[in-house]
Design brief:
The complex is a heterodimer of chains A (495) and B (1045).
Chain A: H1 7-17, H2 26-31, H3 35-38, E1 41-42, E2 48-49, E3 61-66, H4 81-85, E4 102-105, E5 112-115, E6 120-123, H5 127-131, E7 136-143, H6 149-158, H7 168-176, E8 186-190, E9 214-217, H8 257-278, H9 282-305, H10 312-318, H11 322-335, E10 340-344, H12 359-380, E11 387-392, E12 396-402, E13 414-417, E14 421-426, E15 435-436, E16 438-439, E17 446-448, E18 451-452, H13 453-463, E19 472-475, E20 478-481
Parallel strand pairs in A: 3-10, 3-11, 7-15, 7-18, 8-9, 8-10
Antiparallel strand pairs in A: 1-2, 4-12, 5-6, 7-14, 11-14, 12-13, 16-17, 19-20
Chain B: H1 2-5, H2 33-47, H3 65-70, H4 87-93, H5 109-120, H6 174-186, H7 196-208, H8 214-222, H9 228-238, H10 240-253, E1 259-260, E2 272-273, H11 277-289, H12 294-303, H13 312-315, H14 320-323, H15 334-354, H16 373-384, E3 386-392, H17 396-432, H18 435-446, H19 452-459, H20 463-474, H21 484-491, H22 497-532, H23 551-554, H24 567-578, H25 603-610, H26 612-631, E4 638-644, E5 651-654, E6 662-666, H27 688-696, H28 699-714, H29 735-747, H30 752-760, H31 773-778, E7 791-792, H32 795-806, H33 840-844, H34 863-871, H35 873-886, H36 892-904, H37 910-934, H38 948-960, H39 1027-1036, H40 1039-1042, E8 1043-1044
Antiparallel strand pairs in B: 1-2, 3-4, 5-6, 7-8
Classes of the chains: A alpha/beta (495), B mainly alpha (1045).
Chain lengths: 495, 1045
């Protein structure tokens, strides 16, 4: 009796096993392969056709720089002369409904300057980003639904205000798989588990577990005598830095590689012996394949996180600190074929400047240089063309000062503002030097070409070759998607 | 378009309910009204109208001739007279590419022929026939067309006769007749029966989640009596581990989690664990073990608090089904989050018990099933009246004692805080009057370069305070001008003591002035606060989900607008009395430590400055608090359940799902489509008990549960969308079998154990997993059950099986969950299940997200799983333990053979033994040499590095004796168990008292810093891998172990 079944049937069977509800793209996620690389899709009759995305794929990978807590747009990328003029007076149109009580308009304490051919106004917080202003597509009219960190973070990461949905990275890896099977397809970097939301932000939700973000700490441990202060040129990598310890189970110091090689060899001999006796089982074939991949992962994965491999010049380009380390790792990861990397600033809501907007200075000092370095470095590594950099916060901040809440502690902070804020994208696929949309005269509400977070998601998927209305997953009797029932592609910013 | 692609199984016969055959008048020409009404319209109505009337999916309506001709996005649906060119016909023939209609199945050949004939005859739509379904744009009442009620899953249970089959030899039970009839129809022969070993392993893992022992397998192989397998099934069903296995299967559906992600937790702990969640989990396990009739099982979970008082103590834990569901906090959008919570309840109940996706009707009428939005809000209303409630599991007297202690503790803690704050304030305010004295000291040290210690001595200053003043006065600031004069003086050389004294005096006056102004403002603010809050006492912060309604519950008084000093003075006051603003870069993030203001002392710094008496007072209060805290340990157990709200309300419809845009109010009632006539409003409290009873009246509920049990055994369901029996779900592959099983279930007292038995004693359950190319060609997915599906063990089975064969499994039942650390020896069901952050191991092996009811699990094969097998301490620990189990065997060969028996329940083949011996002969030597090479100076560095390497060398040396240069014989003695490092003993066993004070919902009240879930990481597992252990790991990582045949 012939037991061996040809491979394609195996894949078809694999698809069947997971039952209804999988679109064609599920195939890639299932086998943890890039759809384009796998060169195949499953049609509804189970046959395998040539890979076909909905649109030309302009972007292969995404770096998402997340300033958790809420960057103030009027103090960074969206200056408003009216704020200077009417400083201390009430916002026309009455009191606004944000999270807390707010008072009069407050001008920005930071000076703005025009940068680049595009003449983008950027505050003194972001001089390095100013240098690359023409490489960036600035979207000044983003808005979201709820003025609280948690729902807004979830919206920006998962397209829904409550926890439980798959994150953008999960959807993307579900749809496209990953280019490098020896690495996780979706990596999340932060010194400590970021924000009060934490893991639900990179959850796979109801998608297969493989699509979950792999959280890795990019923490810079301060070493005694280290001069790695923000703004300085000196980059210190602590002696205890060990890239092998970053991913769970990727390494166990108790086992050497050659021992593991011998273990695998024996295991494969035993498997072969058994399958010859009982007939090949496609699932077992998959298992054997994944053993080899896992074995290779043990060396490749730590390698890519090992920023010590970078030249001093590159390290200096990013500067010191955790954000810089995260940004550098992110570029190394996408270079090796990781589909999406997200870099969070720090744990908690560090950009949440309720009490004093001056707190932005320190955060920007940590972020400005590394963000600009990502852009410069992607170019020098030849990744610029098909990598997308997305940067922003879950919402912006009010043009008025905050006065409610804890009363006496407040001086000149700003409250949460979901109605209008700035995000930016960069990369060969989007038009650098574009300034898209606008908020009102006070920088409070998006009025010109408003862009909902769903639209950002739709556009990112579009750039990756996916129609956001077609990347669906049948769950709970419904076809879920990243953009829910919304989402418009921002064709104007596509290069 | 994904809808169409998503539905496989087109080649299988599908049960489509059609209009009653009696209506089918034969013999009418295809262009007559009679033909249309009897042959065409009924098919359109039952198969198409769900999506192609009001929903107009794909832009297409099929309820009028005009609409058909106009067509949808792909063009006209019919070309009258030309069936082959008509998209309608192509799609029902499944020849239109990916456009296959109707969704989820194919029409019967006769029905297709009728439609073809009708189109061929000109697609005549009789003038007399109005559109069946009128667009309901006026918001008038949703009526369910009678055809929609004809959908297969809504029908009463039908009595079915097991069909006749040819191969009666094969048939063991009636189930087999249904299966075989279908196979014979398709011309497929079932494969041979499974070997006795495979069968016993399958049955044992299936019913208990644990592998059988070699002895059990041998006993079964020897037992040739006809009821040998029946005895096995009965034995396994009687095992207490049965409940652990099948209870867990139900917990997937129940989206069981032990915490939830609360967006803004009032206690600021990030998320909230449920310390007693296990009471519900243990109830479920026990219910399965007791074979609780399914109706009781359902009623208890939906309305366990509303059942007969006499049995209520038994049913209350079941209310965890609702009580443990997610509760969200969210100031800013309270309406939305309350609605989201109700949504969870509607979803888990309707999909879990009825296989209906009612949750889809939150924003609009269900697109596919006859479920109007009003039905959704009729059910959501039930949960609007169902609030979170904790049921203490201790007598009233104990409870009162705890409550009293808690209040006492709270008062004492408040007292301590007040005493400390007062002392700190008094100290700082009195120090304010010494400002000038200190500034003179500053001048002497900085300008005169005098020795600081000498100045302190001379002027009787506080060393640390002087140091603070020095640093403070040096630090530039733009926030206020008051330091300017001083700093200018210090910048120039040659300042005089006179000058310094004058400026110091001025500065002190400013400090005192601002301080006094602030004191007055604080008094004013106290009055503002007192006036704004009801009563005179500050409101307590809300702590439980049902208490949290407004922003003020979340943060009492936070909405107040309090008075403040002018900005410059406020900054100045802050830096002197509160905290350092760090020049231009104030870091004011929560959690980040800020430097104290110049005069602020806390903690030890405060205590040593306030004198012995105050110190003793504080110590006394602290001791007292500690004593009270001790009295609260262990905390009493309580159930996280629900109860009816005091005020019963009906919910209005949220238009388009928007809770701010409300429509008509809907009485609470059951789903319209499942009611005969108008649904009657629920009248008893929230209506949960009525809801449970209505569910249990439904044949659908019976079909759903028997299908879940079937799927649990076979891997695929008869309906393989087990929580969706609606239009978009699958149609049953064996509709009659499903009816048979449902009838069997109802007639046998809704006993799940009897159903297991009935299923397992069939021939189809006992098939082997062998392949048959002919059958595979016809049915590669094995949906007709011509063989058994080979399944990878799930997360629980893998971990539990490894513990079982290593001999380390702690088989105790029930109790609080613990983290799944490498040394945790209990079954996986007792591991913590976090919605916030799911355990890494569980996640890796496809455990479903506990945020939402899961109908099935996936099986993924990813490299990270292999990494776990290769590198995790857990697997190696079990492997080392397994090696110890065989260590007493006399020879290496005997050990290998024994290991095969333990791991696989069979004897090793000669080749397998040979391979094993080869590996074990060379491995110790090679490993030793490698370690040798890695260690540059033997004995030089001592315990540097990981330490394990040195240890490993010792072990290798002990085991293999390679130093003697002799051949490391395969027959070498195994290290004795005592020499093997023992894993830490952490089995928490039967500790019924829940550890809750630290991380319960009530946690914050016990003291500051009570952050739940942030326990210390597990202690690293202590062991050293041995060659035998690694060999055991290889066996444990093999497919033969990880798969169930």
């Amino acid at each position: 009796m012939r037991h061996r079944s040809p491979n394609p049937v195996t894949r078809r069977e694999a698809l069947r096993r997971i039952g209804n509800g999988f679109g064609m793209l599920a195939f890639a996620g299932m086998l943890n392969e890039s759809l384009a690389r796998a060169g195949a899709v499953i049609a509804s009759d189970g046959s395998i056709g040539a890979a076909k995305l909905d649109y030309p794929q302009r972007v292969k990978r995404v770096i998402f720089l997340f300033m958790n807590g809420g960057l103030s747009q009027v103090d960074s990328f969206d200056p408003k002369p009216m704020l200077d003029k009417y400083d201390g007076q009430p916002l026309p149109g009455g009191e606004i409904k944000t999270e807390r009580k707010t008072g009069a308009l407050m001008k920005s304490p930071f000076k703005f300057k025009k940068y680049g051919q595009c003449g983008m106004d950027i505050s003194e917080l972001w001089p390095h980003l100013g240098e690359v202003a023409d490489d960036i597509c600035w979207i000044r009219s983003v808005y979201t639904d709820i003025p609280n960190h948690e729902p807004a973070c979830l919206m920006l990461n998962t397209g829904a205000n409550q926890a439980g949905r798959p994150s953008m990275g999960a959807w993307i890896t579900y749809g496209l798989g990953t280019e490098n099977q020896n690495l996780p397809g979706y990596v999340v970097l932060c010194p400590d588990v970021p924000t009060t939301v934490g893991p639900p932000l990179w959850s796979n939700g109801f998608l297969p577990a493989i699509n979950q973000g792999t959280y890795i700490s990019d923490k810079v441990e301060e070493e005694p005598g280290s001069s790695g202060k923000p703004g300085s040129d000196k980059v210190t990598i602590e002696k205890s830095f060990d890239p092998k310890k970053l991913i769970s189970f990727v390494n166990n110091p108790k086992f050497s590689l050659s021992e593991q090689r011998r273990e695998l060899d024996l295991l494969q001999k035993l498997e072969k012996m058994r399958s010859e006796a009982n007939g090949a089982d496609p699932q077992v074939e998959a298992v054997i394949k994944s053993m080899e991949v896992a074995y290779r992962m043990q060396t490749e994965a730590p390698e890519v996180f090992d920023i010590r491999k970078e030249s001093e010049a590159t390290q200096k380009l990013y500067g010191p600190g955790s954000t810089a380390r995260g940004c550098l790792m992110a570029v190394r990861l996408v270079e090796k074929g990781v589909r999406m990397v997200q870099v969070y600033y720090a744990k908690g809501d560090p950009w949440d400047a309720h009490a004093d907007i001056m707190a932005h200075r320190r955060n920007a000092l940590d972020s400005d240089r590394p963000f600009a370095a990502v852009i410069k470095d992607l170019k020098s590594r030849g990744l610029w063309k098909d990598t997308l950099v997305l940067c922003g916060s879950e919402f912006g901040r009010t043009p008025v000062r905050e006065i409610g809440g804890s009363g006496e502690r407040l001086r000149n902070g700003r409250d949460h503002n979901p109605f209008g804020f700035t995000m930016w994208m960069a990369g060969g696929a989007v038009k650098g030097g574009t300034i898209y949309g606008a908020t009102d005269d006070f920088g409070f509400k998006a009025v010109e070409k408003p862009v909902h977070v769903h639209d950002i998601h739709a556009t990112i998927l579009y750039l990756m070759g996916i129609d956001h209305t077609k990347l669906t997953y049948r769950y709970s009797g419904r076809d879920f998607r990243l953009t829910d029932v919304e989402g418009n592609i921002l064709h104007d910013i596509v290069a | 378009m994904c809808f169409y692609k998503a539905l496989p199984l087109t080649s299988f016969a599908i049960l489509l309910t059609t209009a009653a055959p009696a209506l089918r008048a034969a013999g009418h020409p295809a262009n007559t009204a009679e033909f249309f009404e009897t042959k065409v319209r009924p098919v359109l109505a039952t198969a198409c109208y769900a999506c192609h009337t009001d929903s107009a999916l794909g832009g297409l309506r099929l309820d009028s001739a005009e609409a058909m001709l106009k067509g949808g996005k792909r063009g006209p649906a019919v070309v009258p007279g030309d069936p082959d060119k008509s998209l309608l016909i192509q799609s029902i023939r499944h020849t239109a590419g990916d456009l296959k209609m109707p969704m989820g199945g194919k029409l019967k050949p006769a029905e297709i022929e009728d439609l073809v004939a009708w189109v061929k005859a000109g697609a005549v739509w009789p003038k007399t026939a109005a559109a069946v379904v009128e667009a309901d744009k006026t918001g008038k009442k949703y009526t369910i067309p009678p055809e929609r009620r004809q959908f297969w899953s809504f029908q009463p249970l039908q009595k079915v006769q097991p069909p006749k089959v040819k191969d009666t030899q094969w048939v063991k039970t009636d189930i087999d007749r249904f299966i075989l009839a279908k196979l014979e129809e398709e011309g497929i022969k079932p494969v041979r029966p499974a070997s006795k070993r495979d069968l016993l392993r399958r049955a044992t893992l299936d019913l208990t989640g644990l592998p059988p022992t070699f002895e059990e397998i041998q006993a079964f192989e020897k037992d040739t009596s006809p009821d040998a397998f029946a005895k096995v099934v009965d034995r396994l069903l009687a095992s207490p581990h049965y409940g652990e296995r099948w209870g867990r299967i139900w917990l997937d559906v129940a989206r069981y989690g032990e915490d939830d992600y609360r967006s803004l937790d009032p206690m600021r702990r990030g998320y909230n664990p449920y310390p007693n969640a296990h009471l519900y989990r243990d109830w479920v396990v026990q219910a399965f073990n007791d074979d609780m009739p399914y109706d009781q099982f359902v009623k208890a979970q939906i309305a366990g608090d509303l059942l007969d008082e006499k049995i209520r103590h038994k049913t209350l834990p079941a209310t965890g089904f609702l009580g443990l569901g997610p509760w969200y906090y969210d100031n800013g959008a309270v309406e939305v989050t309350r609605a989201d919570e109700r949504h969870d309840r509607v979803d888990v109940i309707t999909r879990g018990f009825l296989g209906l996706t009612v949750a889809c009707a939150r924003c609009h009428d269900h697109k596919y099933d006859p479920i109007p939005t009003t039905d959704y809000y009729a059910l959501a209303g039930v949960f609007a009246n169902t609030v979170y409630h904790e049921y203490p599991q201790v007598p009233k007297s104990v409870l009162n004692r705890f409550k009293a202690l808690e209040e006492e503790l709270e008062r004492k803690q408040k007292l301590l805080r007040e005493v400390q704050n007062n002392l700190s304030l008094q100290l700082s305010q009195s120090l304010a009057f010494e400002t000038a004295k200190y500034l003179e000291g500053v001048w002497e040290v900085v300008a005169q370069k005098k020795d600081m210690a000498a100045v302190v001595e001379d002027k009787r200053l506080d060393y640390e305070l002087l140091d603070r003043w020095i640093k403070y006065m040096e630090r530039p600031t733009t926030l206020y001008p008051y330091k300017k004069a001083w700093q200018e003086m210090m910048a120039k050389p040659g300042s005089t003591a006179q000058q310094a004294k004058k400026l110091a005096q001025q500065f002190q006056e400013k400090v005192v002035e601002v301080m006094l102004a602030k004191n007055e403002l604080s008094e004013e603010n106290e009055i503002i606060t007192a006036k704004s809050l009801p009563g005179t006492k500050k409101k307590k912060r809300a702590n439980k989900p049902n208490e949290f309604i407004t922003n003020d519950d979340f943060c009492p008084g936070c909405g107040l607008q309090l008075k403040n000093l002018p900005e410059e003075e406020m900054s100045f006051y802050t830096e002197i009395f509160q905290r350092e603003l760090n020049g231009e870069d104030p870091i004011v993030q929560p959690g980040v430590r800020t430097k104290p203001g110049v005069l602020l002392f806390r903690g030890w710094g405060l205590e040593k400055r306030v004198g012995a008496e105050a110190q003793a007072q504080m110590a006394a209060i602290r001791n007292d608090i500690t004593a009270t805290q001790k009295k609260l340990q262990p905390y009493y157990p309580y159930i996280h359940g629900v109860k009816d709200a005091d005020q019963i309300i009906n919910l209005p419809v949220s238009l388009r799902g928007d809770p701010y845009n409300l429509g008509e109010e809907v009485p609470r009632h059951f789903l319209s489509v499942l009611c005969k006539g108008e649904p009657q409003p629920f009248s008893k409290g929230s209506g949960r008990l009525e809801l449970a009873e209505a569910i249990l009246q439904q044949p659908l509920a019976m079909r759903v549960i028997v299908n879940r049990i079937w799927k649990g055994h076979f891997g695929t369901g008869i309906v393989d969308s087990p929580s969706n029996f609606g239009m978009t779900g699958e149609r049953p592959t064996h509709p009659e079998l499903l009816e048979y099983l449902a009838n069997f279930f109802v007639n046998n007292g809704m006993s799940i154990k009897k159903l297991h038995r009935e299923i397992m004693l069939s021939s189809v359950y006992q098939l082997s997993t062998e392949n048959n190319p002919q059958a595979f060609e016809k049915d590669s997915g094995n949906r007709l059950y011509w063989r058994a599906n080979s399944k990878r063990m799930d997360a629980e089975q893998i971990r539990d099986s490894m513990l079982a064969v290593s001999g380390r499994l702690d088989r105790a039942l029930g109790g609080p969950s613990e983290p799944l650390t490498p040394t945790y020896r209990r079954r996986t069901i007792y591991g913590k299940v976090s919605r916030y952050k799911l355990d890494e191991y569980l996640q890796l092996f496809d455990f479903p997200s506990p945020n939402i009811s899961a109908e099935k699990r996936f099986t993924t094969t990813v490299p990270l799983q292999r990494l776990f097998l290769m590198n995790s301490d857990f697997v190696q620990l079990q492997a080392e333990e397994l090696a110890k189990r065989v260590a007493t065997e006399p020879t290496a060969e005997a050990r290998i053979r024994k290991m095969y028996q333990i791991v696989y329940g069979r004897n090793a083949t000669e080749n397998e033994v040979k391979l094993g011996l080869e590996y074990l002969r060379t491995e110790p030597m090679l490993a030793y040499e490698e370690r040798k090479k890695k260690q540059p100076e033997p004995g030089g560095k001592g315990r540097a590095g990981s330490g394990s390497e040195a240890q490993g060398e010792k072990m290798a040396a002990a085991g293999a004796k390679p130093a003697e240069g002799a051949k490391p014989a395969a027959d070498m003695p195994m290290p004795m168990p005592e020499e093997m490092p023992m894993p830490d003993k952490t089995g928490s066993l039967n500790n019924p008292a829940p550890e809750m004070a630290a991380d319960g919902m009530m946690a914050g009240v016990f003291g500051p810093g009570g952050r739940g879930g942030n326990r210390q990481g597990p202690a690293p597992a202590k062991y050293d891998p041995t060659p035998w252990g690694r060999y055991a790991k290889i066996l444990l990582s093999s497919s033969e172990f990880l798969f169930i045949n």
